[in-house]
Amino acid sequence: MKILITGTAGFIGYHLTQKLLKRGDTVVGIDNINDYYDVKLKHARLLDAGIKVSGMVYNKPVCSTKHPNYTFIKLDITDKENLQQQFQNYQFDAVCNLAAQAGVRYSLTNPDVYIDTNVKGFLNILECCRHFKINHLVYASSSSVYGLNKKMPFSEHNIADHPVSLYAASKKANEMMAHTYSHLFNLRTTGLRFFTVYGPWGRPDMALFIFTKAILEGRPIEVFNNGNMLRDFTYVDDIVEGITHVIDQPAETNFLWDAKDPDPATSSAPFRVFNIGRGAPVNLLDFVSEIEAQVNKKAIKTLMPMQDGDVAETCADVSNLDEMLNYKPQVSVHTGVERFIAWYKKYYHIKSTSPEPVLVH
Length: 361
Ligand SMILES: NC(=O)c1ccc[n+]([C@@H]2O[C@H](COP(=O)([O-])OP(=O)(O)OC[C@H]3O[C@@H](n4cnc5c(N)ncnc54)[C@H](O)[C@@H]3O)[C@@H](O)[C@H]2O)c1
What we know:
This protein is α/β, with parallel strands linked by helices and about 350 residues long. The chain has a domain at about 1-195 and about 235-275: NAD(P)-binding Rossmann-like Domain (Rossmann fold). Helices cover about 40% and strands about 15% of the residues.
């Protein structure tokens, strides 16, 4: 297939690109390479896929030196005109939209970018998919859409209409917008609610990265809600495997869908949403212990209250994806953290560490 992936300089986009290239798909990646976090890491991910950023020109395709089937274009999804031009040039079979302003806490202080990229940018993606007759649009939603919902595990069949951050609201908006396009224009769409993704090449604004860095540097870590948090950490390879299963099996109309008892997970239109999570939440303090064990160094923990926009517990009901597409995430937190630490040490040239005493405030 010829697949457009947006957000390919990002964490999940990098891994998905590698996976699809390896199995022989033709990939066109786009990303605006913004500086929300360390741009060097984004450049390094691109370079690892054979894309050199030196001399790169906005909206001009760059061919990979490692993969003949990979082209990257530095492009902003809010730039409708150039986005349309690239859809016209390439005639994609499928589109996977991962480009977004991520981060729950950042959305409390920088709301505009969430509307610009996640809402207006996503509208541009929908419009291009509509006009260029894309067979299937897969897009990143988030577990954060469950918001105030406390019915565990989180199921796609339950209503998720109470977001607690603008980030979550923008992701929920994506699902609603996608449904409209599926209904009006018969565009096949699948929204994927990812649950706390972690792994090598991970995001510096996320817990595993922040904790590992601070522990190795002997700095305190902030543990929110006094550690009373359960997170359904999901290893990035599992996420990417799930996305691949979804790309290969486009959304279909659910002919059994009942408008009098509407299931939020499907529709009379070719629309669906899936959770992709491990379905096995881990206590935040146990997660920290796992990192401590693997870096052989104790954390200095500063216990903090709950943060605005955050939720205390997430847990994916993974039965829908398993039943529909026969896929279930596999990788344990122990193995996943081990692989992350190995990558982190290699990437940042860190040799060895020695145990330090623990201080709990
Ligand atoms: N990582 C997680 O735990 C997680 C959980 C739930 C949902 N998601 C969603 O999955 C997707 C990928 O997440 P990630 O963790 O890889 O994040 P990421 O920030 O590493 O990747 C997103 C990429 O999109 C690019 N981007 C942002 N705005 C853009 C724009 N206007 N035009 C073009 N490119 C733009 C960024 O430069 C970045 O490289 C996002 O949509 C995110 O909201 C991630």
